[in-house]
Design a protein that fits this description.
alpha+beta; Alpha-Beta Plaits; two-stranded antiparallel sheet; two-stranded antiparallel ribbon; 19% helix; 13% strand; binds FE3-S4 cluster
């Protein structure tokens, strides 16, 4: 189990989520943020912080965004070695 960032994050990237994560699970690229499924402890602290409700427990991701479950894992695998961890709120845009 893990939580997943879904498509509403694309081009929003409020980054309120990263500040409350006790495990520093978030990674980012130009489009959106992703949660490391191996490090997420399902505390759900980030869920209520996202202004666009982009974060869901993997089992509860709406069907239209199911592909984001695999996308989070794939992008974290690519971004983690590059050190693209996001732990502080960032300016948008
Ligand atoms: Fe994205 Fe919401 Fe976090 S828009 S960066 S998941 S607060």
């Amino acid at each position: 189990m893990a939580h997943v960032v879904t498509q509403p994050c694309v081009d929003c990237k409020y980054t309120d989520c990263v500040v409350v994560c006790p495990c520093e699970c978030f990674y980012g690229d130009d489009r959106m943020l992703y949660i490391d499924p191996d490090d997420c402890i399902d505390c759900e602290a980030c869920v209520s912080e996202c202004p666009v409700s982009a974060i869901y427990r993997d089992a509860n991701v709406p069907a239209v965004w199911r592909e984001d479950v695999a996308l989070n894992a794939e992008r974290v695998a690519a971004l983690k070695p590059a050190g693209a961890r996001v732990t502080e709120k960032q300016p948008r845009g």
